Amino acid sequence: MLGGYMNKVLRINLTTGEIRTEPLDLNMARKFLGGRGFASYTLYKELKKGIDPLGPENKLIMASGPLAGLFHPCSSKITFAAKSPLTGIYGDSNMGGHLAAELKYAGYDMVIFEGSSNKPVYIVIDDDKVEIRDASHLWGKGTIETEKQLKDELGDDFQIAVIGPAGENLVKVAIIRHDFGRESGRTGVGAVMGSKKIKAIAVRGTKSIPVADFDEYLRIGKEMFKSLMSSPIFPEFQRYGTTMVVDWVNEIGAFPTRNFATGYHENYKELNGTAMKERVWIHDKACGFCPIACGNYSRVEYKGKTYYVEGPEYETIGMIGGCCVMPSIYEVTYGNYVCDNLGLDTISTGAIIAFAYECYEKGIITKNDTNGLELRWGDIESFAKLAEMIAKREGIGNILAEGVKKAAESFGKDSIKFAMQVKGMEISAYESHWAPAMLLAYATCDIGAHHNRAWAITYDIEVGREKITKDKAERVVFLQHARPMFDALGVCRLTWVECGLNLEYYAKIYSAVTGWETTLNDLLKCAERAWNQNRLFAIREIPDFGRKYDYPPARWMEEPAISGPTKGRLIPKEDVDKLLDFYYEVRGWDKYGRPTPEKIKELELEVTE
Amino acid sequence: MARYLAAHSEACSGCKTCQLICALIHFKENNPKKGAIIVKSNLPEPGFKITTCTQCGVCASVCPVEAIYEENGVYKIDRGKCIGCYACVSACPEEAMVRHPAETAPIKCDLCGECIPYCGLNVLYIAQV
């Protein structure tokens, strides 16, 4: 029995109803670690080229990691993955909460959902007992009511992941939600779950996770807690969570305002951590085994009703507050609630609605297109209405539900120039008109534009924003390995990102837990392997995949920022090409952005048709 | 003077680190379900509630085989002696005793205090009354 892993994979076929277990592939564990790595390997190996992401041939992966559920800070991340209906390539999104640990206590490292049911179901995984149950009484309900009802029916000790109406209606920015506030938000994994007619997955486990060297593991785990909790940043990050950065991001002009036309929101002090803490916050809410508790549980009144929601976090503040130019934290908190309950990603939905506002302002769409709904920047009522139309695919919502790229193709009139996406996925909350490393991170992110894989903007500030240099590509590549390493291990990266916990700890504890002597470089190599595997997935799917899919939207290359500290700035296409040249060189890819045979061999990857 | 593990529930974030370290110290197992602290939420309503043992001794008084004994004001279970009748679990006025399917004996707090330093929000403390 390999320590840290439960050594078992569960496979559930929704078409046939067959449920079976398989031993964990130890070669996969060694080469891909777990979580996101398992998803990369499994989807490349098992999915046929060209399948419909919303058809029964797609597979939904739910994978925990070898360090999840163990005693070290923030061991709580689970990955959901599939061929993305939003981008058509490999897609994944991870969440915290308590599900990653619970899945292991139930005895599984990974669950693979195959086929699709012809009626709504929910899955119960209760240790060794696994059932597919009828969910017709839950279909159509919001995420909050669904999770609450299942908690009441099954018991508070079940950890539950659900979809909302957006997932049911195959909206391509639909989320999977858990613990009343943790989300796998990106790449449309909620739509894949909806296409299989799985309304919810409930997990409970009573088993123990084996470890190879108990004393050493516990010693390192205790040291990691003490080191994290004595970090000078710890108290502030605990107090504000990710909202801590709102002020700084505005001061450097990177707050995505007015659909990324500028990096500065004039009223940002109405949206920052202090506003959140003083006006809507009720209490801290943590994921499993996390002493930081960066999550904030909040309350907001809207039209005489009280709503509770976890958040808003920085990304939601950026994408609803900045991108859609909301006046204060109250509107953002209510918008957060609306999206969460409908099962929509706040990042993509913020980008899509901001795009719709801009199209309306420019006359590209009119009241005739919106069923008479007037679209205005900063108007939460139209935001909430449009979000509902997207989730239910009503009227123009049916077009917007396809994501901002498809919507731009439908609206035409050069709107693609300000459709803020890469590879079909909406850009998250860092305005990069004058942040070359951050722009490169978005351009090259393996799942489409997402900050999570490389938060490189701090590097731009550190070494000089004007620089278009190879070291920026090197930094982006390092981050694209270090951060996904956490997603593979099943651990939250914010211990390191925000509080500076030493990365070497993860090699030490992985070695003690598994009994496999492993260095930090070994772990980073596994992350690099998954990154290249995902690139090969995209190349297999899309014959001309490469450089032309790595360009940011024209707004960043052709249209200067309109105000704030970055006013007048842009990064022209020739500079983007320079950055991509550096990036491909650092990665060992050819000039079209394809892994070379030497790189493929070095990483021991198999290429299949 | 009685001493027991107490909690400022209103500050709890629900991370359950206390349950995990408790199981590691007492069972050498990664299994928070074997922790002697109960953390519950009533989500989507806000807040968490922590239940801890107050060392009141009711459990010892109802045990038919005298498997629960007192040592310096702390009630402990002789796990070999326990017959698993759960009279103590039913009698506990705080509902602070934990049952786990793999254990015959229930699980209760022995006031070791190991959970306290790992609580990031300083929710747990030793109360003296």
Q: What does the model show?
A:
The complex is a heterodimer of chains A (609) and B (129). Chain A is an alpha+beta fold. Chain A folds into three domains: 9-204, Aldehyde Ferredoxin Oxidoreductase,  A, domain 1 (4-Layer Sandwich), CATH 3.60.9; 233-426, Aldehyde Ferredoxin Oxidoreductase Protein, subunit A, domain 2 (Orthogonal Bundle), CATH 1.10.569; 436-500 and 519-602, Aldehyde Ferredoxin Oxidoreductase Protein, subunit A, domain 3, CATH 1.10.599.10. Chain A contains 25 helices and 17 strands. Chain A has a six-stranded mixed β-sheet. A six-stranded mixed β-sheet of chain A has the order 8-7-12-9-10-11, sandwiched between helices. In chain A, a hairpin with a 3-residue loop joins strand 10 and strand 11. The mean pLDDT of chain B is 97. Chain B is 16% helix and 20% strand. Chain B has a single domain, classed as Alpha-Beta Plaits. The interface between A and B is large, with 44 and 35 residues.
The number of helical elements of chain A comes to 25
Q: Provide a count of the helices of chain B.
A: 3
Strand content of chain A: 5-15%
Q: Based on CA inertia axes, which overall geometry of chain B fits?
A: globular
Q: Structural class from helices and strands of chain A?
A: alpha+beta
Largest sheet of chain B: 2 strands, antiparallel
Number of domains of chain B: 1
What percent of residues of chain B adopt helix (DSSP H or I)?
Answer: 10-25%
Q: Under CATH, the topology of the largest domain in chain A is which?
A: Aldehyde Ferredoxin Oxidoreductase,  A, domain 1
C-alpha termini separation of chain B:
6 Å
Looking at this structure, what is the CATH superfamily of the largest domain in chain A?
Aldehyde ferredoxin oxidoreductase, N-terminal domain
Q: Count the strands of chain A?
A: 17
- From the spread of the alpha carbons, the general shape of chain A counts as globular
Task: Output the radius of gyration of chain A.
Answer: 22 Å
| Backbone structural class of chain B | alpha+beta
At the third CATH level, what is the topology name of chain B?
A: Alpha-Beta Plaits
Any idea what the CATH architecture of the largest domain in chain A is?
Answer: 4-Layer Sandwich
CATH class of chain B, named Alpha Beta
